[in-house]
Specification:
By secondary structure, this protein is mainly α. Helix content is 84%, strand content 0%. Helix 4 packs parallel to helix 7 and helix 6 packs across helix 9.
Length: 255
C-alpha cells in the first residue's frame, strides 16, 4: 500500500466532523454554562473576532517560526545522528542513553528544566527539538538497518559514488521510515511547543494567549485558540508530508 492510498483512507470525513460538532452543541446546551463548555457557535464567533486583530497574527507567527524551527532542527540532526550511529557503533552506544532519557522524561519536567537555561522566548524551539529528535533518530536508524545488504554489496562491487548511493539506494528505502517519524513528530512538536509556551508565557505567543484566556475564564477564546493550534498542526503536517510524498514519487520515476 503506497502513501497516497494510505492518506486517502485516513482522510477526515465531513459527516464525522458534523456529527461531533452536533454532539458538542448538544452537550453544551445540556450543561447550560458556557464557562464550563462553550458552544461551537460561540467559539466560531470569537474566532472571527480574533482574525482581524494584529496580535492574533503576531502570536501565530511567533509560535509557528519557533515550533517549526525546532522540528526542522530535530529532523536534520536526527538524520545525521542516525547516519553516524549506523556507521560507528560507539556513536550509537553514546546516543542511546540520551535518546532513552528524552523519551522517559515528561514534557512538563523538560520545560521546567530547560527554562532554567533558556529564555522563555526560545523555550518552544528547544522543547520541540527534544520531543522530535528521538522519533526521527530511531525511525531513520531503523530504516538504515533494514536496508537490503545485497544492494549494498552491489554498490561496493560496482564502486558506486556516494551521491549515486544516496539517490538510488538510501533515499528510496529510508524515506518511508523518515515519513513515519515525521508524521508522529509533527503533531507532538505542536503539543509540546505550545505546552512549553503556556508554562514559560513568552510575550506574543499562542501559549500566552491560552494562559490569559484561562486566567480570565474566557472559555470561547480558549477554545478558539485551541482550534487555531489544531488547524496549524494539521496544515503544516499535511504540507510537509505532501513534500515527502512528492520526493518519493520523483525518486520512483527516476529509478
Amino acid at each position: 500500500m503506497n502513501s497516497t492510498t494510505h492518506s486517502r483512507k485516513n482522510k477526515i470525513k465531513i459527516w464525522a466532523v458534523a456529527v461531533w460538532l452536533l454532539i458538542w452543541q448538544l452537550v453544551s446546551m445540556w450543561i447550560g454554562q458556557e464557562i464550563l463548555l462553550v458552544s461551537p457557535a460561540a467559539v466560531f464567533v470569537r474566532l472571527l473576532e480574533l482574525v482581524p486583530e494584529g496580535e492574533f497574527w503576531r502570536s501565530i507567527w511567533f509560535s509557528l517560526v519557533r515550533i517549526t524551527g525546532g522540528f526542522f532542527s530535530a529532523a536534520v540532526f536526527g538524520i545525521i545522528a542516525a547516519g553516524l550511529a549506523v556507521r560507528f557503533r560507539r556513536a550509537e552506544e553514546f546516543l542511546r542513553p540520551f535518546v532513552l532519557t528524552i523519551k522517559a522524561i515528561p514534557v512538563a519536567s523538560f520545560v521546567i528544566l530547560v527554562l532554567i537555561w533558556v529564555p522563555s522566548r526560545n523555550l518552544s524551539v528547544v522543547i520541540s527539538f527534544l520531543m522530535v529528535f528521538p522519533i526521527i533518530y530511531t525511525n531513520v536508524l531503523e530504516g538504515e538497518r533494514q536496508m537490503d545488504p545485497k544492494l549494498m554489496e552491489m554498490a561496493q562491487v560496482f564502486s558506486l559514488s556516494r551521491p549515486v548511493r544516496l539517490r538510488y539506494l538510501y533515499l528510496p528505502q529510508i524515506l518511508p521510515y523518515f515519513r513515519t517519524g515525521c508524521s508522529v513528530g509533527l503533531g507532538l512538536c505542536w503539543k509540546a511547543g505550545v505546552a512549553a509556551e503556556v508554562i514559560g508565557i513568552p510575550d506574543q505567543s499562542i501559549g500566552e494567549q491560552l494562559y490569559n484566556a484561562k486566567v480570565y475564564l474566557d472559555t470561547p477564546e480558549l477554545f478558539a485558540w485551541t482550534i487555531v493550534i489544531i488547524m496549524l498542526s494539521f496544515l503544516f503536517e499535511r504540507f510537509f508530508l505532501w513534500l515527502i510524498d512528492r520526493v518519493a514519487t520523483i525518486l520512483e520515476r527516476m529509478r
